[in-house]
Amino acid sequence: MPLLIEEDSSNTPSSADELEDTNPSSNRKRKGTTPFNDRVLRAKVLPPAPEYEVTESPAIPGQQQGIEWLTANSKKLFDLVFANVVGRSGGVTPTHQGTCVLCFKDSGQDNSSAELRHLPSLQSSPLMYQYSDYSTTFTRAVGWFGLWRRTGVLLDNFQGHTNRCYKPMDATQLCHQEHCGMHITYELVEVKEDRKRCAAEARTARQEHKDIPTSCSRHSPPCLLQ
Question: Helix, strand or coil for residue 89?
């Protein structure tokens, strides 16, 4: 049932013409455009909160799957994994942005460390990442943990539970390189799809031997075109 928030009408003017000018030096009446009924309560109707189903954890009955992806520990652990992956794949640090780092080729990982027990196998394509009872592609995990902190609704969206209620979101490679683990943002899927236009225009310009800009002017953050 919608929630009605009633406003106090004890001082509500009986008509729009009785709304005083806010300028104290003026005695003119301010002409209004919305009529008011005398002594009638006005209400603002709030829409009901959306309802949707979520997936129960296969490992912990009674708990939502993936709920631990909201914890500080999940973020801390992923940062360690990310540094290890890009270090072995490209020999760079997590703050590197100059070039793409393709994260799909095994570089001789070592899972003996307890801190790296969640390290994904670099033999798989696409590269996968699992934490607790939920797994997804490594690039989606980079997008998820890229801006911290997240909310429960965003987690539901991340897992695809809210597609009927909210616009879906996903990780996007700004460089349009499928396996790059560096140039990633997390955004609406419709924006991700629109970025394909920039990639197509850059390919056409390259084929026609035209100058290609460093980045696009259509999106924020911009697509990387060179």
Answer: helix
Q: What span, in angstroms and rounded, lies between the C-alpha atoms of 82 and 208?
A: 38
Q: What angle do CA 167, 170, 172 make, to 5 degrees?
A: 130
Going by the DSSP 8-state scheme, the letter that residue 46 receives in this structure is E
**Residues 132, 66: contact at Cβ < 8 Å?**
yes
In this structure, what token pair is assigned to residue 148?
């911290």
Taking only the tens place, the pLDDT of each residue in 22-35 is: 454 445 554 545 55
184 bridge partner residues: 173
Two tokens, residue 93: 């640090």
What pLDDT, in 10s, does the model give residues 151-199?
Answer: 999 999 999 998 788 999 999 999 999 889 999 999 999 999 999 999 9
* Residue 209 falls in which region: left (phi positive, over 0), alpha (psi -120 to 50) or beta: left
Amino acid found at 225: L
Tokens for 167? 């616009």
What the block records as the tokens of 31 is 């002409």
Contact 92, 74 (CB under 8 A): no
